[in-house]
Amino acid sequence: MNNQSPAIKTDNLTRKFGDLTAVDHLNLSVERGIIFGFLGPNGAGKSTTINMLTALLPATSGSAGVGGFDIQKEPLEVKRRIGVAPEGLSLYQRLTASEQIELVGRLHGLTHAEIERRIPPLLDMLELEDAVDKMIIDYSHGMRKKTALACALIHAPEILFLDEPFEGIDPISTRAIKKLLRDMRTGRGTTIFFSTHVMELAERFCDQVGIINKGQLIGTGSIPELRRRVNLSEDASLEDVFLQMVGTQGEEAELDWLTAESVQMPQKDV
Predict the structure, then answer these.
(1) What is the mean pLDDT of residues 39-54?
(2) Which fold has domain 8-247?
(3) Domain coordinates of the chain in residue numbers?
């Protein structure tokens, strides 16, 4: 492994589903020790990209390296070094959070004693300690998201992949998680790669962002760099930058029955 190599690097990475090209010749480089936001409209290819980078989905063509290892030739080496909280939340419904986290820790080779040491503070930080004896099938969506995050963190990964990590999570837990992720970046040099639709979150939280649209990477860099690229002022928001780069999706629909001041009400049949 070359510690000087980027944390993530792709070379014409492509994934097709039949006639649909979900990711189209993606060339991306993410340096080590940063928080990288991956942005795009629905269906742009964000989750497909993450699934390929985490060796969960084979590429149709092209290549990629994660942590200095090839995702197709060395998938086990990649998986040893990453943590993943996927969009699909692949959790065992009949386990408790502690049991699910312990299972992941065992798969990563942690000793029982080390797992027992790490689980309680994780559950406490994520505010799951009161649900420690409940099965995951009885958890809310937010609790499941937090359990998946705990599973991604238990082995202290070098690179962390998060797909919409804060969706459905309450503001108190969100704040604690963001602080933890920042501490991981500054303390251990962990690289954090996450997708989101929340522009305000990405603007405040990320060192760099990449924007994908229709499977193609259309911009990457710091937010000031992207502002300059599309000739926007220094006070322009990331949302402004995003909309400028992605463009509008056709004419706005006219929903006059929802927006007009005076609307005729439907008549009852006599």
Answers:
(1) 94
(2) Rossmann fold (3.40.50)
(3) 8-247
pLDDT in tens, 200-227: 999 999 999 999 999 999 999 999 999 9
**Which among 179, 268, 217, 267 is positioned nearest to 48, based on CA atoms?**
217
Query: What are the Cα distances from residue 107, in Å, to 90, 102, 224, 260?
Result: 15, 9, 41, 58
Beta bridge partners of 213: 216
